[in-house]
Amino acid sequence: MQRGPPVQTQREADGELVFAGGWREKTRTSLSPMPPLSGLQREVLSLYRRTLRVPRTKPPTTRTRWSIMLRYTFRIQAARAKPTEFSTVEYLLRAGRRQVDMFADPSVKDCQVSAAMHAWDEEDRRRR
Asked: What's the CA gap between 5 and 12, in Å, rounded?
């Protein structure tokens, strides 16, 4: 069946095209080939973004250490769980939120970065 050209309608703004003959089709709002993120994936991404914002609240001399420590901790913890282990991911999300809340406290000014964290950071920068 050959479809005619889309007919301009008010619904086009709502993400729906109406073709001649009344045939309707939803338009994609994103050109990304990836499927939409699940709720759990959105929560993990939200926590990671929140984690990356914490160093901005710290003194300028310590921001690099904070960034290394938080990225390292997040990646190491993320490697502990397979994406299909929902209960483990949920547990790590809860634990991660508590840690980020603790680190985001204005009274916490500095952190320690181990040699392993520095080595991981160097390797991570080389991979990018």
From this structure: 13
Q: How far apart are CA 28 and CA 15, in angstroms?
A: 7
Tell me which residue has tokens 């984690």. Answer: 51
Task: Determine contact, residues 71/65, Cβ cutoff 8 Å.
Answer: no
72-87: burial string, b at 16+ Cβ within 10 Å, e else: bbbeeeeeebeeeeee
Per-residue pLDDT tens digits for 111-122:
999 999 999 999
Q: What region does 15 belong to: left with phi over 0, alpha with psi -120 to 50, or beta?
A: left
The answer to whether the beta carbons of residues 70 and 120 sit under 8 Å apart is no
Record the pTM: 0.68
pLDDT, tens only, 8-29: 555 555 566 666 666 666 655 5
